[in-house]
Amino acid sequence: MLILGIDTATSAIAVGLSDGERTASALRIDPKGHAEHLAPLVGDLLAGEGVSPGELTAIVVGTGPGPFTGLRVGMVTGLTMGHALGVPVHGICSLDVLAHQALCDECESGRPGHRLRTHGDVLVATDARRKEVYWARYRVGAAPDGRQALLPLTQPAVDRPAELPADLRELPTAGRGPVLYPDLFPHPVGPLDVDGGVLARLGALGLRDGRDMPVEPLYLRRPDALTTAERGAGR
Amino acid sequence: MSSDAPLVLGIETSCDETGVGIVRGETLLADEIASSVDEHARFGGVVPEVASRAHLEAMVPTIERACRTAGVGLRDLDAVAVTSGPGLAGALMVGVASAKALALSLGVPLYGVNHLASHVAVDIVEHGPLPEPTLALLVSGGHSSLLLVPDVTHDVRSLGSTIDDAAGEAFDKVARVLGMPFPGGPHIDRAARSGEVALDFPRGLTTGRDMQRYRFDFSFSGLKTAVSRWVAAREASGEPVPVADVAASFQEAVVDVLTRKAVLACREHGVGHLQIGGGVAANSRLRAMAAERCAAAGVELRVPRPGLCTDNGAMVAALGAQMVLRGRTASDLSLPADSSLPVTVVQS
Predict the structure, then answer these.
(1) I need a surface site. Which of A172, B53, B253, B347 has the fewest CB within 10 A?
(2) At what angle do helices B221-236 and B167-177 cross, to 10 degrees?
(3) Interface list for chain B against chain A, based on CB atoms closer than 8 Å
(4) In angstroms, how far is CA B270 from the centroid of its own chain?
(5) In chain A, which residues fall in CATH 3.30.420.200?
(6) How far is CA B140 from CA A184, B87, B161, B185, in A?
C-alpha cells in the first residue's frame, strides 16, 4: 500500500505519502499559488522518496471546507491522477486531519498513532475569508473496538467567530483561526496547516477499517449570485 | 496524418464549458463537452463560481468520454495541452490542475496555451493546414479581437480588440432588453430572420478620427445603450416593440462593423485569408456577410463549423499538436493559470 495525500483547503499546499506506517510530507504556503505549485510539489515529493507515480495504490484528497478555488485545485488533481493511474480516490474532511494532528501524539513524528495526547474536546478553526471561519468540534473517545478515536461532535460549519458560543471558543483550537482572531480563540494549539502525510495515513487507516470516504467538496456556502427570479423579487 | 503523428489531449475550462479534445497530428479524434450553461441561465449570465463547481464535477468524466470516443487510452498520449488563459481565474485553474495531474501521472510533456490562439488553430483539424500569415477575427462573449497570425504556435499579433463590451456580451445584453433568455446570440439570430434592418443603430469606432485612432478596435457599449434607449422610448410611448426588427437592426450593426474592419485589416496587411472563430461565429448573418465581403475583396474565408467555433477542448488539442509538430519546448509543470494572459503570449 502506498497512498498519496493532497490537501489545498487552506493557504497551504500540503502533500504526503504513507505506506500505512512510514509517512513523508511536503508543504508550501502560498494562498494564491495552489494551481501553480501543487503538481511540482507532488512531483518533487515522489522523486525525493524514489517513488514513481505508477507505484501509488490510492489517492486521498482533503475535501475542505476551504476557500473554493484552492480547494478545487487539490481535488481535481487527486481525481485526475487517480483516473490516469487507475487507482481509487478517497476524500477526508480537511478539518478532521487538523484535529488528528492536534490530538495525536505521534502524528507529528509522522507515525501511526493510537494514543491521543489530550483528553477532552478540541476545536478546529480555519480561515474562511469574509471575516468567517470554517470550524468543527471533536472529542477523544473510544472506537467500537476499544481503541481511542477522534469523534467529530459537529458537522463542519462556517460562521463569524464572534458568533460562536464562548465555551466553544475557549477550547484548545487548531488551525489558523486563532492566528487571525487571537482575542476570540484564546487557546491555540498547533498545528496551523494540514499535514499531507497525516492525511495520507488517515486514508490508509480508513481503507483498513473499510470506511466510506466520499470525494465531495465541502463548500458550505452557495455561489455568490442571485438568480434573475431573486433579483426580480427585490432580494 | 500517419499513426505516428503526436496524440495530444487538450483541456479547456476558461468559461462555462468543460471541454476535452483529442487530436492525432491534424486529425480530430474526439471533442467532448460538458456545459454548465443551463445552470447559468437562471442567473442571467455566467456565474464564475457555478462554472468552477461544474468543471470540478465534469472534469474526469469528460476526459473519460473523450478517450472512449477517440478509442485511445490515456497511456497512448504523447502530450497534454491546456488553456492557461485568458478566462475566469477559478475556472481556468480546474483545467490547468487537471492537465498537470495528467502530465505528471503519465510522464508526458505539458503545453499551457492561449485560449485565443486555440480558436485560430482549431481550423487546422477542420480545413487542413493553416495558411500563414492568416488574419483572425475572434468574437465571443468574452472577446472581440482582430489578430494577425504569422505562426499560430508562437507569433500572434493583436491588431485591435473591443474597448468595452465583447460582441457576444452585446448580444446577451440586447437579448435581455428584448426579453429573450441567456445566452442571447441564438435568440437574436432567430428573431432577426423575420425582421427588417429598419433601424439605424450606431456603428462604433467607424468614422473620422476613430478610424485613425481605433482603426481595428471595436466598441459595442454605445450600440447596446442605443438599442436599450430606443426600446425604452417605444415602451414609454405605449407602442409595441418590433422585436424582430430591433434584433435584425442590432445584429446588422454588429456584423457590419466586424466584417468591415476584418476585411480592411486583410487588405492593409496584405493577407489573403480570414478566419473567424468564437461563439459569435455561429451567427448566420455574420457568416453570410463575411462570405460576401471576403469574396468581393478576394480574401479566402475559413470558418469552422459552429461546434468548433464555441469553446471546446479540440481547439486546445489542435494547438498542442502543432506545438509538438513544430518542436516547441514544453511548458513547465509550475505554469500558472493567467486570467488576463495577453493574446500575444501563445504559450505559458
Answers:
(1) A172
(2) 10
(3) 42-44, 47, 49-50, 52-53, 55-56, 59-60, 63-64, 74, 89-90, 92-94, 96-98, 100-107, 333-337
(4) 24
(5) 95-180
(6) 49, 12, 12, 10
Contact list, A81 vs chain B (CB under 8 Å)? 101, 104-105
| Record: contact B106-A84, CB cut-off 8 A | yes
* pTM, 2 dp: 0.94
Best probe of the A interface among B105, B176, B338, by most A CBs < 10 A, is B105
Distance CA B346, CA B92 (A): 16
Which residue, among A157, A201, A193, has the nearest Cα to A174 in the 3D structure? A193
Residue B193 one-letter amino acid: R
Q: A40 and B334 in contact by Cβ < 8 A?
A: yes
- In the block, cell 487530436 appears at B23
Domains of chain B by range and CATH?
7-122+312-325 (3.30.420.40), 134-304 (3.30.420.40)
Helix (H, G, I), strand (E, B), or coil: what is residue A25? strand
Torsion of CA A98, A101, A103, A107, to 10 degrees: 160
- pLDDT per residue of chain B (348 residues) written in tens, 0 to 9: 456 899 999 999 999 999 999 999 999 999 999 998 888 888 888 899 999 999 999 999 999 999 999 999 999 999 999 999 999 999 999 999 999 999 999 999 999 999 999 999 999 999 999 999 999 999 998 889 999 999 999 999 999 999 999 999 999 999 999 999 988 999 999 999 999 999 999 999 999 899 999 999 999 999 999 999 999 999 999 999 999 999 999 999 999 999 999 999 999 999 999 999 999 999 999 999 999 999 999 999 999 999 999 999 999 999 999 999 999 999 999 999 999 999 999 999
- Measured distance CA(B146)–CA(B265) in Å, rounded: 8
Residues linked to residue A133 through DSSP beta bridges, in sequence order:
A127, A159
**B37 closest CA partner among B46, B27, B28:** B46
CB contact under 8 A, A84 and B44: no
Write the ipTM: 0.93
Please report, as a single letter, which amino acid is at residue A93: C
Fold for A3-93+194-209, please state it: Nucleotidyltransferase; domain 5 (3.30.420)
- In chain B, what residues touch A228 (CB-CB under 8 Å)? 42-44
In sequence order, the β-bridge partners of residue B273 are B300
Task: Put residue B122 in one of left, alpha, beta given phi > 0 → left and psi -120 to 50 → alpha.
Answer: alpha
| Pairwise CA distance, residues B279 & B260, whole Å | 19
Q: Comparing C-alpha atoms, which of A223, A202, A203 is closest to residue A101?
A: A202
A200, three cell numbers: 495520507
Cβ proximity of A175 and A137 under 8 Å: no
Q: Give the bridge partners for A151, in sequence order.
A: A139
CATH topology (fold) of A95-180: Nucleotidyltransferase; domain 5 (3.30.420)
